[in-house]
Amino acid sequence: MTRDCRLRLFPLIVILVLCIAHPAGSADINAAIGDKIPLSGTAVGTDWIYLFVTGPGLPQDGVNPGRMQVPAVTGEPDTFAMVDASSDHWSFIWNTARQGFELKEGIYTMYAVKTPVNKADLGSATYGSTTIALTYGGVPLVTTGNILINSTPVRAEVYINNQLYGLTPQSVAILPGTYTVLLMSGGYQPFSRQVAVNAGSTIEVDGVMVPLEVPSTSNVTKTEGQTPVVPSPPRTVPSLPPPTKSVLSPGILVLAIGIVSILIMARKKR
Question: What is the SS3 string spanning 17-36?
Answer without folding.
Answer: EECCCCCCCCCCEEEECCCE
